[in-house]
Write a structure and sequence with these properties.
421 residues; mainly alpha; 0% strand
């Protein structure tokens, strides 16, 4: 017996649900920030081997290699269920890790598996969370809604979580993981209040692996053929290369090129976090002024110039300002491109479009890190900055169609359903 279709939530109910989503992201981001600080410390404490410390860190990101398939599963599952399930899975993983640390039994293989499992749940959550925003915000409010979500994440992972995690680790090693698990549990409880909508069917009459692969291919084909999203996906890959080329060697650059003491590296990270938060606060106003397409070009230009200024003028106060400016540009890019995907992708494909797009960014990051390290070693510590700036400048001609189409979509008020938002 089929159930009656649910009526769309009222504006007041959608606003309340959006606040729940933002609060849930903020809570879990605090826990994530604590874990990001404590997990490398745990890996080093358990193994004392730099190689295995890096493997544990990489395991958490390796799940993004499966992002297109996970995006298809997200599109075929009610989004609230995907987010709550992912939070509960991460809660269980972190509580298990906490228990292992209490017992003192933390073999590195177990840490790698737990990090990978947590990363899988993160991909499910992030894909579903971006796909649910258009159901909670009107089309003209997408930039503001996405900026609020990003702000909550920045505060949690950039400002609150890491120092809390380091402090809790010093007090008692299991505490940061206990906190992270508790934040995921609180996030899951908050998200149960989101309105639920039925998931679309597979649509091809098939079930199982064949249907999953067909759905995944359909999402990738949509990305490859869309005249706005295709260049954005190429540019975001370059952005990933550029950013990691710089950040992979930033700690060495700060010590050897800027001649700062170890606190200098923390200073640069704080400057970048401040810039990210400022970017999230100002992005909606910039988009209203310029339109999303032109804002994308501005964000890439700002990022490129900030890298090139540092390559030419390595003076530490200027480097801190340029890192803040660069981070603001990256956040402006994120707000614009997330909103464009939400407008342009069909609602039943938004999960896989989001995950396929983000695979381009995450997949390119190891290339950037390797290139930055090689250039720093063989050419000089200024070379990664110059490479990053020149690569981004080379991307600007490919964003012409994005500027026109993005501005037109926002002006026309096209929503994710293809009609008025």
């Amino acid at each position: 017996m089929s159930s009656a279709p649910t009526s769309p939530p009222s504006d007041r109910a959608r606003a309340k649900a959006l606040r729940r989503l933002i609060t849930a992201n903020g809570l879990s981001s605090v826990g994530d920030g604590a874990r990001f600080a404590a997990l490398p410390l745990l890996a080093a404490w358990s193994t004392g081997d730099v190689f295995w410390v890096s493997v544990v860190a990489a395991a958490g990101r390796a799940a993004w290699l499966l992002a297109p398939v996970i995006g298809t599963l997200v599109d075929r599952t009610p989004r609230r269920r995907s987010m709550v399930g992912a939070d509960l899975a991460r809660c269980a993983t972190l509580f298990l890790l906490c228990a292992l640390v209490v017992t003192g039994w933390t073999p590195v293989t177990v840490l790698v598996l737990l990090a990978f499992g947590s990363g899988l749940a993160e991909v499910f959550f992030d894909s579903a969370a971006q796909a649910v925003v258009p159901t909670l915000a009107a089309d003209h409010q997408l930039e503001r809604a996405n900026a609020r979500v990003i702000s909550a994440q920045i505060v949690g992972t950039g400002f609150v979580g890491p120092p809390v995690g380091a402090a809790l680790w010093s007090a008692w090693h299991p505490l940061p993981f206990l906190l992270d698990g508790a934040t995921f549990l609180a996030s899951a409880l908050l998200l149960t209040g989101l309105p639920e909508r039925a998931a679309p069917t597979a649509g091809d009459g098939e079930q199982g692996i064949r249907s999953l692969l067909r759905g995944t291919w359909a999402g990738l084909r949509f990305l490859a053929h869309d005249r706005v999203l295709r260049p954005l996906m190429g540019v975001v890959a370059v952005l990933g290369v550029a950013q990691q080329a710089v950040y992979a060697v930033l700690v060495v650059y700060v010590e050897q090129r800027l001649h700062l003491r170890p606190f200098g590296y923390s200073l640069m990270l704080v400057a970048a976090a401040v810039g990210s938060l400022a970017g999230a606060k100002t992005a909606p106003r910039i988009v209203r002024w310029l339109g999303p397409g032109r804002s994308v070009k501005v964000s890439v230009t700002v990022s490129a110039l900030s890298y090139l200024v540092v390559a030419v003028l390595p003076w530490w106060p200027l480097v801190a300002v340029m890192l803040a400016l660069n981070s603001a540009g990256v956040v402006l890019w994120n707000v614009c491109t997330v909103s464009l995907r939400q407008r342009l992708a069909p609602p039943d494909m938004l999960g896989r479009v989001t995950s396929g797009y983000r695979l381009a960014a995450w997949g390119a990051m190891p290339i950037g890190a390797s290139a930055g390290g090689a250039l720093a070693q063989h050419v000089g510590l200024d070379a990664p900055w110059a490479l990053a700036g020149l690569l981004l400048l080379a991307c600007l001609p490919f964003l012409g169609a994005v500027a026109t189409a993005g501005h037109g979509a926002a002006k026309a008020g096209i929503g994710p359903s293809g009609g008025p938002a």
